[in-house]
Amino acid sequence: MPISANQPARITVRTATIAYDVWISPEAISQLSVLLEGVRTRIAVVDANVARLHAAHFPPALFSRVELIEPGETSKSLPTAERLYSVLADARVERGDMLIAIGGGVVTDLAGFVAGTWLRGIRYISIPTTLEAAIDASVGGKTAINHAAGKNLIGVFHHPSTVLIDTRFLATLPRRDLIAGLAESVKHALLTTPAFVAWHETHAELIRDGDTGAMNELIARNIQVKTDVVARDEREAGLRAILNYGHTIGHAIEHVLEYELRHGECVALGIVAENALAVAAGILDPTTATRARALLHTLGLPTALPRPVDAEALLEACRVDKKVRSGKVRFALLRGIGAPVIVDHLSDAEIVGAIRTIQP
Question: Which of the listed residues 72, 172, 180, 252 has the most CB atoms within 10 Å of its CB?
Answer without folding.
Answer: 252
